[in-house]
Design a protein that fits this description.
It contains 15 helices and 5 strands. The chain has 2 domains: 145 residues, no CATH class; 160 residues, no CATH class. The chain has a 3-stranded antiparallel sheet, with helices on one face. Strands 4-5 form a two-stranded antiparallel ribbon. The protein is mostly helical. The N and C termini lie far apart (123 Å). The radius of gyration is 36 Å and the shape is flat. Helix 5 runs antiparallel to helix 6 and helix 10 runs parallel beside helix 13.
């Protein structure tokens, strides 16, 4: 394809794609099913501004734009005419999903339809190779939309894991605590007549479960793996490591708040109300989650990047240890004792031989 024809096709593809996506984002999605109709665009904006778990959504679109810009040379190389039939089928499926979601008033289906529509547009205008090249930037949009049911499926189990692990670690530190549901209470003291939770009590609420930091850390780990690692399996390992790292960071935060409650009191460590009036220490402890998780993420990426150097270094150290231990083994070995290695002389070897008797002629 000549350069002028390519430029014209790019302009047409851009105008059509932007117009279609703008229409899907702004058209009333509920179509009278609810009292106040809303659009997908307004729904995303309200989620990003009001839901603390999704405030990182503002960073997703600029990140996608940079990821596409970063691949501009590869995009120019793989540019080709699109596949009309497969792209049109995917685009039609995306539009059907949007219509079905609007009729059922299920916003998550409308958000999913946007991703399907974008895939169909890229396939229709630029072909399969371009779709594979842009698979990571297009899939990155998943971090901008709320996943239905994830709070109930993940948040409460995380709260239970956090509280149980925190109680076990506090017992190791010598702090007598008990667990009631997701609450961490001071152990009762019969001698002083103190009931459970009289000295202190800390509740692992939904914001403390780690679900809020988990979404943001998954997004950051995906970006960090994309720019620092080479192979796909290394990227997936770092991406999946964001889950235990988020748990470890949030566990460090809960332990810090609990120990501060024991030492300085609940009002200093937690605040008058953990949700509405948290203390400055409570707010500052939230950054500990990201400090621990990001430090662990950088460490895992460094291990994956330098695994070959570490392997060769360990092999060199093992050879050096073996070489140092060999001379000592030889010195203590009987087979290498100079005294024992000398040839054994026969005591009768110095006696001259007896003369032979002459044979008789008879």
């Amino acid at each position: 394809m000549t350069r002028p024809a390519r430029s014209i096709s790019l302009v047409v593809a851009g105008v059509v794609s932007i117009s279609l996506l703008a229409m899907l984002l702004s058209v009333p999605y509920s179509f009278g099913v609810v009292t106040v109709p809303f659009s997908i665009g307004s729904f995303l904006w309200s989620i990003w501004t009001t839901n603390p778990d999704m405030q990182h959504g503002f960073l997703v679109l600029p990140a996608i734009a940079y990821l596409i810009y970063e691949k501009r040379k590869e995009i120019a190389e793989v540019y080709e005419a699109g596949n009309a039939l497969p792209g049109m089928l995917v685009l039609a499926c995306g539009l059907f999903l949007f219509w079905a979601g609007s009729q059922a008033d299920v916003t998550s289906i409308g958000l999913l339809s946007l991703m399907v529509v974008v895939v169909g547009l890229v396939w229709f205008f630029f072909g399969w190779r371009m779709l594979l090249l842009l698979s990571f930037p297009l899939g990155f949009f998943i971090f901008a939309i709320p996943i239905p049911g994830l709070d109930t499926m993940v948040a409460f189990p995380l709260r239970m894991i956090m509280s149980q692990t925190a109680v076990s670690l506090l017992d190791l530190f010598g702090v007598d605590v008990i667990r009631q549901g997701t609450g961490i209470l001071s152990a009762p003291d019969p001698l002083l007549g103190l009931p459970a939770g009289k000295r202190f009590s800390v509740d692992v609420a939904d914001p403390c479960s780690g679900i809020r930091s988990l979404f943001a850390l998954l997004m950051v780990s995906a970006l960090y793996a994309h720019f620092t690692l080479q192979t796909w399996w290394e990227k997936w390992i770092l991406f999946l490591c964001a889950i235990p790292l988020a748990v470890a960071g949030n566990l460090a935060r809960i332990l810090t708040l609990t120990l501060a409650t024991v030492a300085f009191g609940s009002e200093f460590a937690i605040g008058k109300n953990a949700l509405t009036e948290p203390s400055w220490f409570h707010m500052a402890a939230g950054y500990l989650v990201f400090a621990v998780a990001l430090g662990g993420m950088i460490g895992v990426a460094w291990l994956l990047t330098n695994r070959r150097n570490l392997k060769s270094t360990c092999a060199t150290l093992l050879r050096a240890v073996k070489q140092k231990s060999l001379p000592a083994a030889r010195d203590s070995s009987p087979s290498h004792n100079p005294a024992s290695s000398a040839p054994i002389q026969n005591p009768t070897s110095n006696i001259p031989p007896r003369p032979r008797r002459p044979e008789s002629p008879y």
